[in-house]
Write a structure and sequence with these properties.
The chain has about 80 residues and is mainly α. The chain is built from 4 helices and no strands. The longest helix is centred in the first third of the chain and has 12 residues.
Length: about 80
């Protein structure tokens, strides 16, 4: 998941802790931590909230060219 590294780097460039980003974005600290470490895939809506809080374009965090995690569900 490319956005795990990009999220952490964007947060560090903004000089924010995970707690500060959580307050700004409304995303829990535990979710931010799990996304940054790759333990949890992030929803696009979550990445958009984080990008807005970081003052970066959502495309900075979202790699539209790579498929997301395999959820095991068949496409509709």
């Amino acid at each position: 998941m490319r956005y795990t590294k990009d999220l952490r780097e964007a947060r560090e460039r903004a000089l924010l802790t995970q707690s500060e980003l959580a307050i700004r974005s409304g995303v829990t600290v535990s979710t931010i931590s799990r996304v940054e470490t790759g333990a949890q895939a992030a929803r696009i809506s979550t990445l958009r909230r984080l990008a807005t809080a970081l003052g970066v374009a959502a495309e900075t965090l979202i790699d539209w060219e790579r498929p997301g995690p395999d959820t095991g569900k068949a496409a509709a």
